[in-house]
Write a structure and sequence with these properties.
single chain; alpha+beta; Rossmann fold; Porin; 2 domains; 8-stranded antiparallel barrel; 7 helices; rod-shaped
């Protein structure tokens, strides 16, 4: 009999322990009533209905698996059955009444509003037992309504101490991060137009001809020249860490040497959104003075008119010559650069090389511009 009583007592104790453990591990019952978004309804880029932020928040809370969430269908049923008014219920007194009527452990509420150029997200969790808000978070983001789902996700994860991607959150909070699709929607592109200036250096036969006397067809100029122009930039891809763009660059070279050498360059490039490094290449067209002529056996240059009276007509070729006519000189350019950002100011620095049979040409340029935006298609 005594043994039987001991077994019963042990069984009862184990049952209590199991019950207590189950109660301890049970998730709190939480009701999400409404996220107030009245202040951002109609905001450019926010095209969803009034309840979309609430549904996004409900979905992200479900993903966290912290609470036993009351789904929206059960909530609608209880509201209709008990005739409970949850519309515009954001005050502590109203939330307390709702919690008692719905017999839940927690109530989740919050708001999303626009202040100046920021979106402010406020989330709060009301504890029915204590009658107080046990959790609250306030987060500021850039005014990027299209990124609202991501903002809600990152805010909830931070609220419950879960890790977030620092790179992704920074792109929605730091105004002067390099542009990409998260903080610069595709319909609003960055146009980094601006002046460019620098120096270029000619080598090989081209440098020799530039330095030669004008009586020999030279230009009496040094092979290093100043140049200036203006860059027009058009993005056609802006995804993730990279953006692809076309660059149009009219320039004038040689004014410091008494020369006027206009050029027009078209480059296709790719830029890293995170650090500003870029690489570009494309054709360049310069307007230079050239003439037809030939070299004699002593490597002396003669104009084509000097063939008069010669029995053996030499092979005529074309080269730079200050006595000639203006011709278009095509070439191909390879460039690398980095854009340094200081607030709204961009400072691009680029180095380039132009290979040629008459000598390789090198150059370095820099410029400045401010962030300007324009609509896609303009």
């Amino acid at each position: 009999m005594k043994t039987k009583n001991i077994i019963i007592a042990i069984s009862f104790l184990m049952l209590n322990i199991i019950t207590l453990k189950a109660q301890t591990n049970a998730k709190a019952k939480l009701v999400l009533i409404e996220i107030d978004t009245k202040e951002i309804i109609g905001l450019a880029g926010y095209n969803s209905n009034e309840g979309s932020a609430t549904e996004i928040t409900r979905l992200e809370l479900d993903k966290l698996e912290i609470y036993n969430m009351v789904n929206k269908y059960d909530l609608e049923y209880l509201i209709n059955k008990e005739n409970i008014q949850i519309k515009n219920c954001f005050s502590t007194y109203c939330i307390s009444d709702i919690a008692q009527q719905l017999k839940c452990d927690k109530v989740f509420t919050g708001s999303i509003s626009k202040v100046a150029d920021k979106l402010i997200i406020i989330f709060r969790v009301y504890d029915t037992k204590s009658g107080e808000f046990e959790k609250q978070i306030v987060k500021e983001y850039l005014s990027l309504p299209l990124q609202l789902p991501a903002m809600i996700k990152y805010t909830l994860r931070e609220m419950y101490g879960l890790p977030n991607s620092n790179e992704e959150t920074k792109s929605m909070t730091d105004k002067f991060e390099f542009d990409e699709t998260r903080n610069n929607p595709y319909k609003s592109l960055l146009r980094a137009d601006g002046p460019r200036m620098g120096v270029t250096y000619f080598t090989g036969n081209t440098a020799t001809l530039l330095n030669a006397d004008k009586s020999e067809g030279g230009f009496n100029a040094q092979p290093m020249m100043f140049q200036f122009g203006y860059q027009f930039e058009k993005q056609y891809l802006n995804e993730g860490d990279f953006q692809a763009l076309f660059e149009f660059l009219p320039m004038v070279t040689g004014l410091d040497q008494g020369l006027f050498i206009p050029s027009f360059t078209i480059m296709n490039g790719i830029r890293n959104n995170k650090n500003g490094w870029e690489f570009a290449f494309g054709p360049s067209f310069s307007l230079v003075s050239k003439s037809h002529g030939f070299y004699d056996n002593n490597k002396t240059w003669h104009l084509a008119a000097d063939t008069a009276g010669l029995l053996d007509k030499p092979f005529l070729e074309q080269r730079l010559d200050s006595r000639g006519e203006l011709k278009i000189q095509p070439s191909f350019i390879f460039a690398v650069g980095k854009t340094i950002k200081k607030g709204k100011l961009n400072m691009p620095i680029n180095a380039y090389v132009i290979p040629s049979n008459d000598g390789v040409r090198y150059g370095i340029s820099f410029g400045f511009n401010s962030r300007n935006r324009y609509e896609s298609g303009r």
